[in-house]
Amino acid sequence: MLKKYAHLFAVLLWLFDMGVLASSFLAAYALRFFLPQLFPAPFGPSPFQDSLTLFAMAVPLWTVCFVNQGLYGVRRVETATAEVFQLAKATLLALLLLVFTQYFSGAERYSRGVILAFGGLSFVMLSLTRALARRVLARLRARGFNRRRAVVLGTGETAAALLGRLEAHPELGIEVVEVLGGKAESVGTDVGGRKVTGVYEDLPAALARGAADQVYLAMPAEEHARQEDVLELLKIEIVDVRVVPDVMDLITLRGGVEDVDGLPIVHLTSSPLIGVDALLKRGFDLLFGSLILLLAAPVMLACALIVRVSSPGPILYRQERMGLDGRVFHILKFRSMPVNAEAGTGAVWAKADENRAFAFGALMRKYSLDELPQFLNVLRGEMSLVGPRPERPVFIQEFKHRIPRYNLRHKMKAGITGLAQVEGWRGNTSLEKRIERDLYYIEHWSIWLDFKILVRTALGGFLSRNAY
After folding, report:
1. Which of 134, 160, 174, 408 has its CA 20 to 30 A from that of 346?
2. For residues 186 and 199, is the Cβ–Cβ distance under 8 A?
């Protein structure tokens, strides 16, 4: 019955999409030929009958491309963002095919302006209507309509996490009717707020009792050998089977699943600086980095002149630091200590009671003015405005063995400021807490988060009693 509903919904969604396409096409035609003051048509409007022929070409092309992108399949657990990206890919492909088909058809009265406006309008309108349909379906499922009934196998953390998420998102429309464990002694215990009602061997009876049509295998790693026995029980059942791998303890940073020609691959660590996100962050850095550098130029010039007269030696100090993917670069600072200050001691961790800096150098370090040249590192692409603060390789060799997951902070480009810094974890404070905030930042990174950290820094978040 549920599959019949799914088929009916797919047909209704297709009809709805075609209605949106028709509306978008009419709007594109009107925009092109009935607003001449905005878009003059030197040869006059193309015959509407010819344009209808163009739309008749578009319908099968859009349908094929949408089906190819899975836009008429069941999408309960897919994010709205993923659907928009699939819509964009399908629309672009369909638009290219439409242009190709129109060109080789030999027709000369089709308006290129109509085709382009139709592509843009159809994408925008389909995205909005799909978002509306998603919200309507979510509300209906949350109220008990079109729900799927599921049995969950497993009693570990993975099963508990799955049950918690399904409970927290009723809009998915998935109702767990029973939870089964691997051992008899697990019966009656609590997993994710649900009681275990039986063992794996009771699965056929549990499916019958609950009229379930889905099975989630969320078994702990030590029970994976029993999956074959469970799958053998399911061979005679008509249910959808989904596997939730027990890798939660192994995922350390932005883990997920990739598809390589149909082969699912679980990645345990990943950088957010991939594809469009990398371009967005780079654009953010170039825009605001250039602006801040321009505004700070008078202060930087004054600092450079005072350093020159305050202490013999170069104005800028270059020091090795480790950045994205472990690459070493030279960070730029205004020199705040005498030349060869570490010649006798080697690399030394800055402390509150040290007196190595000359007078103006100590003042610059107190107010973080010595960091201003790092905006040049940002423009060169070695650093970002926001990210984990880069550390010296000599210290990293110690920290990576002492602090778990320390090197994961190098999955993000190093920053002038960061979440740890604006929250006060700077200087000679807890390294463990600083790494925790750095990893939280990477895990939850977004352009909006970068902007908020930058604003907090501008409002004094980088001024700290631990700056020395």
Report:
1. 408
2. yes
CA-CA distance, 155 to 141, in Å (whole number)?
26
CA gyration radius, the chain = 30
Within a domain: 258: no
Among the listed residues 265, 269, 285, the one whose alpha carbon sits nearest the alpha carbon of residue 411: 269
Q: Are residues 200 and 320 in the same domain?
A: no
**Of 96, 119, 142, which residue is a domain's last?**
142
Domain co-membership, 454 together with 309: yes
Same domain for 107 and 199, yes or no, is no
- pLDDT at 298 exceeding the cut of 90: yes
The residue to which tokens 């609590």 are assigned: 190
Q: Which domain holds residue 237?
A: 148-247
Q: Are 172 and 157 in contact (CB under 8 A)?
A: no
Q: What is the mean pLDDT of residues 396-407?
A: 84
301 with 193, same domain: the answer is: no
- Name the strand (E) or helix (H) holding 287: helix 276-310
Looking at the fold, whether 27 and 88 belong to one and the same domain comes out as yes
Task: Summarize pLDDT for 134-185 with one digit per residue, the tens.
Answer: 777 777 776 767 678 899 999 888 888 889 888 887 777 788 999 999 888 8
Q: Which residues of 255-265 are buried (b: 16+ CB within 10 A; e: fewer)?
A: eeeeeeeeeee
pLDDT of residue 261: 60
313 and 455 inside one domain: yes
Q: How many domains does the chain have?
A: 3
Do residue 92 and residue 175 come from a single domain?
A: no
Asked if 250 contacts 343 with a C-beta cutoff of 8 angstroms, the reply is: no
Mean of per-residue pLDDT scores for the chain: 81
Nearest CA-CA partner of 351 in 429, 421, 425, 420: 429
Cα 441 to chain center, whole Å?
Answer: 12
Q: Which of 171, 175, 88, 183 is closest to 135 using CA atoms?
A: 171
Phi, psi of 334 (to 5 degrees): -70, 130
Does residue 308 belong to any structural domain of this protein? Answer: yes
